TrEMBL record:
Its main location: nucleus. SMART domains: ZnF_C2H2. This is C2H2-type domain-containing protein. Coiled coil: none annotated. It comes from Hermetia illucens (Black soldier fly). May be involved in transcriptional regulation. Residues 14-41, 42-69, 70-97, 98-125 form the C2H2-type domain.
Length: 198
């Protein structure tokens, strides 16, 4: 319990020598290094997708079980993963971080933004290329396209459990009110976990 509570404090003495991300516990830092070395020891038994952390695998398994414990208070839509609910709430709030520099149309999801840019390119309209590199502060991945970087930074899953519970964007009070979680235990492969409403 002491170790768990220590993780909620501001003191994070264990820093990643590769990207600088700091952790309260050495064990979390060691787990974080798997992001940089490409190790993904936790595999889904259904689709073989692999993950750096067991918590990420557990969240992924909800996709296969069909369970959807996360509900939008505004429209009632259910989601199997908290991050998908947060993306959905951002749509209600009008949050669209990817804006086309040609026509100013905005998108929530990077893939839709890229499809939109392809349509411009098919018409012979090109966007300006630049040589600036953007680096994710969470995992160190480098992008040469700002939109790719921005999308990755918003939904970077490098911090695993911590990243999903406290995402890189801040929810205002109204958005927090729109997030509702059905409080019930989830049983996956004989392992009982719990969902904490943060």
């Amino acid at each position: 319990m002491y170790r768990h509570m220590k993780g909620h404090g501001d003191i994070r003495p264990h820093s990643c020598r590769i990207c600088g991300k700091a952790f309260a516990q050495a064990a979390n830092l060691n787990r974080h290094y798997s992001v940089h070395n490409g190790e993904r020891p936790f595999s889904c038994t259904v689709c073989n997708k692999s993950f750096t952390q067991q918590g990420n695998l557990r969240r992924h398994e909800l996709v296969h079980t069909g369970e959807k414990p996360f509900r939008c208070k505004r429209c009632g839509r259910m989601f199997s993963q908290r991050i998908n609910l947060k993306k959905h709430v951002m749509l209600h709030q009008g949050y669209r971080p990817f804006t086309c520099e040609i026509c100013n149309k905005s998108f929530l999801q990077l893939q839709n933004y890229k499809k939109h840019l392809q349509r411009h390119e098919e018409k012979g309209i090109k966007t300006e290329e630049n040589d600036v590199l953007y680096e994710c502060a969470m995992c160190g991945v480098v992008f040469n396209n700002f939109a790719d970087f921005q999308g990755h930074e918003i939904f970077c899953e490098v911090a695993g459990e911590e990243q999903v519970e406290t995402t890189t964007f801040d929810l205002d009070e109204q958005q927090q009110d729109e997030l509702e979680i059905d409080q019930k235990p989830i049983i996956l492969q004989q392992t009982v976990t719990h969902i904490v409403n943060s």
